[in-house]
Amino acid sequence: MAAEKTLAIVLRTIAFGETSSIVTLCCREFGKLRALAKGAWRPKSSFDGGLDLLSISQVLVLRRASGGLDLLTEAALEHRFRVGGSLPAVLGGLHVAELLDAFTADADPHPELFDVAHTTLRRLSDWRGDDRAVPAILLRFELTLLRLLGHAPETGQCVECGGPLDGVGRTPFGLLEGGTLCGGCRRGRSAVAMLSAEALAAVRHGVTPGTPTIELPARAIAEARSVITSYVAHVLGRPTRVAARLRRPTRRRTS
User: Fold this and answer.
1) Has residue 223 got a pLDDT over 70?
2) 70 lies in the same domain as 126
3) Which candidate, 100, 98, 195, 93, places its Cα nearest to that of 134?
4) How far is the CA of 6 from the CAs of 27, 35, 55, 93, in angstroms?
5) Which of 9, 45, 162, 168 is the most buried (most CB within 10 A)?
6) How many Å apart are CA 79 and CA 226, to the nearest integer?
7) Helix (H, G, I), strand (E, B), or coil: what is residue 154?
8) Contact between 127 and 86 (Cβ < 8 Å)
9) Domain membership of residue 74 as a residue range
10) SS3 for 54?
């Protein structure tokens, strides 16, 4: 069987023996793969830094037809995720990897999602901008992931009855129902968040493909991310590990 080549994001690595690793990759053509990289940490190996966490590499993989681990034979580094002076950006990169791992099934490719993740990680690598811009980047990625994988929240009408939203004050968002609720459907329901008009606009913008970037207040982005983080936890059935650390407020970096 010939090795197949693909561009991959390194989501996770686990030591195996003294010099090898078990690697979880998000591949553009093949989806998520779990592969054994024999001798990955030997000097002058055929991997040469291409398996560092969050790296983007061209890999050669021998795929198993009957389950079990695939065999990784080569990894040529295209881009190493660089840790700069921004903790939110580093945590954001880890969050992207965690969501890709949690939401995607093995051998189920999503090329468009891969491209969005690729672009997001490149932006966050060695981040030198204002840390307060990072939540907007992550919100856009989270909502794009939810949309591409069929979990996009409803934001234009009541998710239960299909009727119009009240349009006055804060809008109820049902975490269990997966979207906005009218006043009538809101009554008696648990796990409901209340979105301000600006936060609802941020969510709507994020789930609409092809829309240009718009400027929204940081408080609206933070509010929208808080609700979407809770929604993601409901969809997965558990909170993600990095999300709690990302909830902490970020400070503007000074040179």
Assistant:
1) yes
2) no
3) 93
4) 6, 13, 14, 21
5) 9
6) 30
7) strand
8) yes
9) 4-79
10) coil
Claim to verify: residue 112 and residue 185 sit in the same structural domain: yes
The pair of structure tokens assigned to 164 is 């119009």
pLDDT one-digit tens code per residue, 75-129? 999 999 999 889 999 999 999 999 999 999 999 999 999 999 999 999 999 999 9
**74 lies in the same domain as 104:** no
Q: Is 252 inside a domain boundary?
A: no
Q: Is residue 204 part of a domain?
A: yes
Is 214 a residue whose pLDDT tops 80?
A: no
State the DSSP code for 106.
B
Q: Supply the pTM of this predicted model.
A: 0.92
**What CATH number is given to the structural domain containing 42?**
2.40.50.140
The span from the CA of 231 to the CA of 243, in Å, is 12
